[in-house]
Amino acid sequence: MTVMAKPEIKTARAMVDAPELAPAKLPKPELLSVEDAKALDVPRMTELFKAHLNPGQLHFMKLLGFHKVKIERAEGMYYVDQNGRKILDFFGGFGSLAFGHNHPRILEARKKFQDEKRHEIAIAFMSQYAAAFAHNLAQCSPGDLDMVFLGSSGSEAMEAAVKLAERAAGPKRPKMVYAENSFHGKTKGVLAITDGQLYRADFRLPGDNVRVPFGDIDAIERAFRSDPEIGAIVLETVQGGGGIVQAPAEFWVKLRALCDQYGVIWVADEVQCGFGRTGRFYAFEHYGVVPDITALAKSLGGGKTAMAAMIARREIYMKAYGAPKTAMIHAAATFGGIGEASITAIEAMNILYDEGLIDNAADTGAYLLERLNALKDKYPKIIKDVRGRGFMVGLEFQDFSRTLPMVLRPLVGVLDDKLKGSLSGFVGALLLRDHDVLVAFTEYNRNVIRLEPPLICGREHVDAFVDALDTLLGRGIVAIVKDFVKSQMS
Ligand SMILES: Cc1ncc(COP(=O)(O)O)c(C=O)c1O
After folding, report:
1. Do 254 and 205 fall into the same domain?
2. Same domain? 178 vs 267
3. Which residue of 181, 234, 271, 278 sits with most ligand 1 atoms within 8 Å of its CB, as the best mutation to test the pocket?
4. How far, in Å, is the centroid of ligand 1 from the Cα of 332?
5. What Gene Ontology molecular-function terms does this entry list (predicted)?
6. What is the pLDDT of residues 373-402, one digit of tens each?
7. DSSP designation for 251
């Protein structure tokens, strides 16, 4: 009989002074190093993107000419590409870059945290960083929005929000009301309240939620009155993916009253419009109302890390998860509130106020709207609408599919379906190619350009952007279309 040797039990001290490791036996696969990654050129990046990431997505990058760009650095309002070209960022990562690229205070806070060898994972012990960050969020949130769940993406924060709403509403009221053209994320739970067919595809989703037109208070009241199983309503305060769509103040005031009357929980999705973007910390603050649950993400990570939060009224939170028996039903995931992400967010929140960025979003955002409205008056046949608030602005072009001169129709006919009738793709592509400006688009309304520059954006950046747009539109639709189609052929 062979006697197994007892494994040596290491003391905590011995574990800290780790023994020498034996040489690796497994051959190392052909891995690229960090320096290799930085040095990849566009053809090789394209090859790897096609082989391992999302070959179909490359098709859309090609339509816009984005596939030729490799970003080498990014600072403040600008990207810098492989040719040293500075690209003015009015896309802002769909609102993820409130502080611009690589804000020095955020870099410094992260570097110090690393140099001090602080810990990251906060599952076993309480985290002083997550606790302080949650305190900050509660400080910035009105009413008794005091309880915080930390995650890594907007979808995760919204999942937490709808799960909390469902538990707090109780098993007899599982249905949710959501809006036409809503976007709340791509994970399966929130997909059930995201309206876009593109994202819903053929996934099996609970079909018993109730869809209403965005901003239609009568439709909401009818739904609440007729269906006692409705326990929650989920709305973006400003629809982003829908093309920057707002509802008037009286809608929100009535919504709050209706939710109180029918005992329905109101979840405000502020993932895109929150965190100062519209000129208040939360967009719903413009209307003097407070939801029961809300969610933030995107710029919460200071443009440097993945951070998201669900913030809920204490009473609602305690109803769902307040007892030890229920506390772990939806406790944070592995990376929820990890160290460096939390201190990045803490620093970000301080900068937001120290640098007056919320006020800047209100003031300079109003200037952006003023200048775009002047452009709309100058080009009424091209620009249909300018709308938004702060630095969450939509510019809608006229649909020219019917008004385009007959001679050009065959030209446009050969383009990808997504581009037919849509000037926004053409304008976005030419703004980048000829004017070094990056703008964003929206899935649900192909005629809209979305403008979500960093909140550090100054009047000089607004002028640079609007002047570039003016120059481009001054060429006229026919020249823009011809130029764009030609670029697609080359
Ligand atoms: C309003 C809204 N909610 C939720 C999400 C999902 O966020 P994420 O992409 O971080 O999962 C987004 C993302 O664009 C959003 O705009």
Report:
1. yes
2. yes
3. 271
4. 19
5. identical protein binding; pyridoxal phosphate binding; transaminase activity
6. 999 999 999 999 999 999 999 999 998 776
7. H
pLDDT number for residue 22: 75
pTM: 0.94
Span 83-115, pLDDT tens digits: 999 999 999 999 999 999 999 999 999 999 999
- Give how far Cα 286 sits from Cα of 171, 273, 277, 278, Å: 33, 12, 12, 9
Same domain, 316 and 367: no
Q: 488 vs 228, which has greater pLDDT? A: 228
Would residue 42 count as lying in a domain?
Answer: no
Q: Is 62 a member of any domain?
A: no
Distance, in Å, from the CA atom of 428 to the CA atom of 437, rounded to the nearest integer, reads 8
Do both 174 and 311 map to the same domain?
Answer: yes
Alpha carbon of 1 to ligand 1 centroid (Å)? 62
121/473 Cα distance (integer angstroms)? 51
- Among 279, 391, 393, residue whose Cα is nearest residue 383: 393
Confirm if 315 and 293 have CB atoms less than 8 A apart: no
Average pLDDT of the segment spanning 122-128: 91
| Per-residue pLDDT tens over the stretch 239-259 | 999 999 999 999 999 999 999
Dihedral, CA atoms, 60, 240, 69, 72, nearest 10 degrees? -150
More confident residue, 430 or 5: 430
Enclosing domain of residue 179:
106-354
Structure confidence by residue, pLDDT tens digits, 51-64: 999 999 999 899 88
Do residues 88 and 464 make contact, with C-beta atoms less than 8 angstroms apart?
Answer: yes
Residues with CB under 6 A from ligand 1: 94, 153-155, 158, 183-185, 236, 240, 269, 271-272, 297
- 82 in a structural domain: yes
Same-domain check for residues 214 and 350:
yes
Give yes or no for a contact between 394 and 419, defined as CB atoms under 8 angstroms apart. no
Q: What distance in Å separates the CA atoms of residue 424 and residue 399, rounded to the nearest whole number?
A: 10
96: domain CATH number is: 3.90.1150.10
Do 372 and 350 have their domain in common? no
The tally of domains found in the chain comes to 2
230 pLDDT more than 90: yes
Q: Which of 155, 159, 282, 293 to mutate to test the pocket of ligand 1 (most atoms within 8 A of CB)?
A: 155
Strands 448-451 and 440-441: antiparallel
418 and 321 within one domain: no
User: What tens digit of pLDDT does each residue of 153-210 get?
Assistant: 999 999 999 999 999 999 999 999 999 999 999 999 999 999 999 999 999 998 799 9
Question: Do residues 91 and 236 share a domain?
Answer: no
Centroid of ligand 1 to alpha carbon of 6 (angstroms):
53
Let me know if residue 44 belongs to a domain: no
Determine the distance separating the centroid of ligand 1 and the alpha carbon of 342, expressed in angstroms: 19
